[in-house]
Design a protein that fits this description.
Chain B: Keywords: Oxidoreductase. The complex is a heterodimer. By secondary structure, chain A is mainly α. Chain A has 13 helices and two strands; from the N terminus they run H-H-H-H-H-H-H-H-H-H-E-E-H-H-H. The longest helix of chain A is centred in the middle third of the chain and has 29 residues. Chain B has a three-stranded antiparallel beta sheet with strand order 2-1-3, with helices on one face. Classes of the chains: A mainly alpha, B alpha+beta.
Chain lengths: 327, 101
Amino acid sequence: MTSTITPDTSATAVISVEEQQFNDLIEADSRIEPRDWMPEGYRKSLVRQISQHAHSEIIGMQPESNWITRAPSLKRKAILIAKVQDEAGHGLYLYSAAQTLGATRDDMTDALIAGKARYSSIFNYPTPSWADMGSIGWLVDGAAICNQVPLCRASYGPYGRAMVRICKEESFHQRQGFEILLELMAGTEEQRQMAQDSVNRWYWPALMMFGPPDDDSPNSAQSMAWKIKRHSNDELRQRFVNMLVPQAAVLGVTLPDPDLHFNEETQQWDLGEIDWTEFHEVLAGRGPNNAQRLQRRRDAHEDGRWVREAASAYARKQSERSEMAAS
Amino acid sequence: MTTPGDSAAEIWPLWEVFVRSNRGLSHVHVGSLHAPDETLAVRNARDLYTRRSEGVSVWVVPAAAITTSDPDAKGAFFESPAGKNYRHASYYSKSEGVKHL
């Protein structure tokens, strides 16, 4: 087959010295740092991705904090508190990374509580049983790790560094979840049923966490060219399922996909059709818990107002006092 | 020059956090946070950056107090060592094989 190659006119377009430097750094797989020149699109795209990620961590505290008072033992309670505290920490690392791009914390918080910013749809699902703490750790945090490990090499330095810290802590989250399910599966018939029911509910939403299929993912190509994203949505989803199958066997749970089968040719697990209508419904705010999650975040922000004001007033008084002492 | 992450819209100043992971090692920059004063900055830094015994000592520095080299002049500013590879031991190859050198 012959084909004609269209000359690439963009290469001959004149670009600034700064832009050339930026392109060279990306090309060399180096990192962009806060004070470097960067294209406006790159900055915007990062602020969008990092702040959405931060919001997800913050909203992500809710489905689990729900179970802190009802954890089955003191040990589990302590673990759950540590995990929820980690998520608050992850949110803060990420807000800080977004702030290095000129976004302000207030604007990001306002966008979230006004319902204008997005966060991962997964946190709009309810957690009616204790086994959900297991499924969230194993499936939701598992999917998050799959997504996040390549982000440690994201081209924007502060984002990559935040992700390194986060990934270190996430592996504890995933393991404690797996252990919860393992213990339930070694329990009574009722407990095994509870675990299986929970896996049935979380499996598909966890697969949707990787985002729409590649041919329907508008921002992916540019993100990959900028080396923010390193792998496509479908690639990461496939990698995740390949890891899950043997883990499910250890647990003794069934993954709720009747079409799941091993493809000898590709040596991968082929999965059944994903219901993307559900994904878009939840994304559009019509998931089971969207309104409740946002309302709780809004209330928490309002309830915490006096703490922020008191801390500012105290700091002001202290500095006035030290100024007086100095004069 | 403005500090990345600093803005008039932020009610609390930005602090850079450095953690010494063990005695005998330097404090290393780990990230930043916003806090109303130095006391709370140190406490928040402990909660945010040392939840798993990552440190034995924490420094917080107001980000505004840090002076950096001019990013636009980075080529020229760090030019001096370029081409001076005789400053590295690996430049001297004739002594290869000679022990304790």
